[in-house]
UniProtKB/TrEMBL annotation:
<keyword id="KW-0812">Transmembrane</keyword>
<feature type="transmembrane region" description="Helical">
    <location>
        <begin position="40"/>
        <end position="62"/>
    </location>
</feature>
<dbReference type="InterPro" id="IPR032820">
    <property type="entry name" value="ATPase_put"/>
</dbReference>
<dbReference type="Pfam" id="PF09527">
    <property type="entry name" value="ATPase_gene1"/>
</dbReference>
<feature type="region of interest" description="Disordered">
    <location>
        <begin position="99"/>
        <end position="121"/>
    </location>
</feature>
<feature type="region of interest" description="Disordered">
    <location>
        <begin position="1"/>
        <end position="34"/>
    </location>
</feature>
<keyword id="KW-0406">Ion transport</keyword>
<keyword id="KW-1133">Transmembrane helix</keyword>
<keyword id="KW-0375">Hydrogen ion transport</keyword>
<protein>
    <recommendedName>
        <fullName>ATP synthase protein I</fullName>
    </recommendedName>
</protein>
<dbReference type="InterPro" id="IPR016989">
    <property type="entry name" value="Atp1_alphaprobac"/>
</dbReference>
<keyword id="KW-0472">Membrane</keyword>
<comment type="function">
    <text>A possible function for this protein is to guide the assembly of the membrane sector of the ATPase enzyme complex.</text>
</comment>
<keyword id="KW-0813">Transport</keyword>
<comment type="similarity">
    <text>Belongs to the bacterial AtpI family.</text>
</comment>
<feature type="transmembrane region" description="Helical">
    <location>
        <begin position="68"/>
        <end position="89"/>
    </location>
</feature>
Length: 121
């Protein structure tokens, strides 16, 4: 028969309990998830506005140097808008891949609570 206070068994039990508690804890709170989504939305808006601003600045500067009043500004604003949209799409794909990886990880992760039930019968 084993001792009533076997330190190895107690340590093993504590480890299994801590794993089970960690598995039951929520990964992120609702507020953190909302905050993250708001950050991504602002990032996309800033990318678009930056593209427009840079295009406007370059076009306006070249128009001033070359004397072609609105022509180059309109072209470079269009190019800046296109670059901003392309950057936004790249960011959206990045977020989508990250979300898909998180969902796949949650599906593949086994819960220690179920494993403990299986071990104990």
């Amino acid at each position: 028969m084993t001792e009533p206070h076997d330190p190895a068994r107690l340590r093993e039990l504590e480890e299994r309990l801590s794993k089970a508690k960690k598995a039951q804890e929520p990964k992120t709170t609702r507020g953190e998830e909302h905050f993250s989504q708001a950050n991504m939305a602002w990032r996309m808006v800033i990318e678009l506005v930056a593209g427009l601003g840079i295009g406007f600045g370059v076009g306006f500067g070249l128009d001033g140097l070359l004397g072609t009043t609105p022509f180059l500004m309109i072209i470079f604003v269009g190019l800046g808008f296109t670059a901003g949209i392309k950057t936004m799409m790249r960011t959206a794909n990045e977020v989508q891949k990250q979300h898909a990886a998180e969902v796949a990880a949650e599906k593949n992760a086994g819960t220690p609570a179920n494993e403990m039930r299986d071990e104990n019968g």
